[in-house]
Amino acid sequence: MSDDRDAVRTWLALLGASRGLEKAVDTGLRGRFGHSISRFDVLSALDRAGAEGLRAGALTERLMVSDGATTQVTAPLIREGLVRRISDPEDGRAAIFSLTKKGAKLFAGMAAEHRQWIDCAFEALTPAQMKSLRRLLVQIDPVNIARSTKDAA
Amino acid sequence: MSDDRDAVRTWLALLGASRGLEKAVDTGLRGRFGHSISRFDVLSALDRAGAEGLRAGALTERLMVSDGATTQVTAPLIREGLVRRISDPEDGRAAIFSLTKKGAKLFAGMAAEHRQWIDCAFEALTPAQMKSLRRLLVQIDPVNIARSTKDAA
DNA sequence: GCGTGTTATTTTATATCTAAAATATACCTC
DNA sequence: GAGGTATATTTTAGATATAAAATAACACGC
User: Fold this and answer.
1) CB B135 within 7 Å, strand D
2) Which positions on chain C have an atom < 7 Å from some protein CB?
3) Which nucleotide lies at the shortest CA–C1' distance from B75?
């Protein structure tokens, strides 16, 4: 068998594993808590940030989405009283997001369940295999694509 | 260091690698060809299917998306004359999608470039490492999540 | 032949993302 | 402190996804 498409085959395996797990987690979160994985990511970032919360820009950066998405995803969380938005007293332009008590409590439950799901999904891998997997994953370099695309243009 | 969150850390690494590469490929395809990665996937599936093409249901299954998405993603491709839709002569309900000559030609160019990008992104990995990576990836089992979610409900 | 039910696809409503335009406020220079 | 410029965020428009309702066509039993 030729190895000509090794990289493409590996990419398809990576994409399949990631999408499959993401879909399963999203379905689980929606079913159990009525929130998408995007919202879970917001709650997670804010939980980690603690009491000071995060500015909209910082939240956007951590979620690796666009600024518009942050506004939209936080909106329903604010409506439900899980997230609080206040103006930065030091910069009137900036908005600071943080978890309410209710939001923190809900997130704790979500995170516990989420962790169990992930543990189940990775059950077949030993800790050493997981470490090996992480080491391989970080060697993949998407920046190379951006470069070669620019060259071709 | 505790290994308590090994699985979650691995999941985050997987998600990061996959999203990063997907984003880079999507950006590359849009910049060079004006088509999203979703459309590329459609063209790819139809190219593989050859002259007989694929029924809408089969295309949906291969893309692993919902049936509605197939209708919507193919629409612009049909408008641009890259994909053809005809009624199945043996089943008036079914639609059969196939590539036009123009679509096949465009896809050939896209696929060649796509492969170069992926080769670049995986440059740091040896063929043996890629094989090892694939073997680890297929052991991840999202179905476990669906099961445990159902139990909890 | 004709209702009845199943199946294939499309349509519709909603959610989420991006990119770009609009808005609002801070900061800097004079 | 007034005006221009830069920056932070929201809004808007468009793409893509899902889920569920609607549409259309086949197929079976009578």
Assistant:
1) no
2) 7-13, 15-20, 24-27
3) C10
**Closest alpha carbon within chain A to B152:** A32
Angstrom distance, B82 CA to C1 C1': 43
The CA distances from residue B38 to A8, A84, A133, B82, B86, in Å, are 16, 36, 27, 14, 21
pLDDT at residue B61 tops 60: yes
End-to-end Cα spacing for chain B: 34
Which of the nucleotides lies closest to B67 (Cα–C1')? C9
- Average the pLDDT over A81-105 and give the result: 91
Instruction: Kindly report each contact of residues B97-101 with a partner whose C-beta sits within 8 Å and lies 24 or more positions away, as own/partner.
Output: B97/B42, B97/B46, B97/B53, B97/B54, B97/B55, B97/B56, B97/B59, B98/B46, B98/B49, B98/B51, B98/B52, B98/B53, B98/B54, B99/B43, B99/B46, B99/B47, B99/B53
* B65 CB neighbours strand D below 7 A: yes
Q: How long is the CA B91 to C1' C1 vector, in angstroms?
A: 21
Provide the percentage of residues in chain A whose pLDDT is more than 70: 92
Q: How confident is the model over A95-116, as pLDDT tens digits?
A: 999 999 999 999 999 999 999 9
Question: Does B123 contact A131 at a Cβ distance shorter than 8 Å?
Answer: no
State the amino acid at position B15 in one-letter form. L
Write out the two tokens for A7: 């990289």
Query: What pLDDT, in 10s, does the model give residues B24-52?
Result: 999 999 999 999 999 999 999 999 988 88
Determine the pLDDT at residue B68: 87
Quote the tokens at residue A131.
Answer: 């470490």
pLDDT attached to residue A78? 93
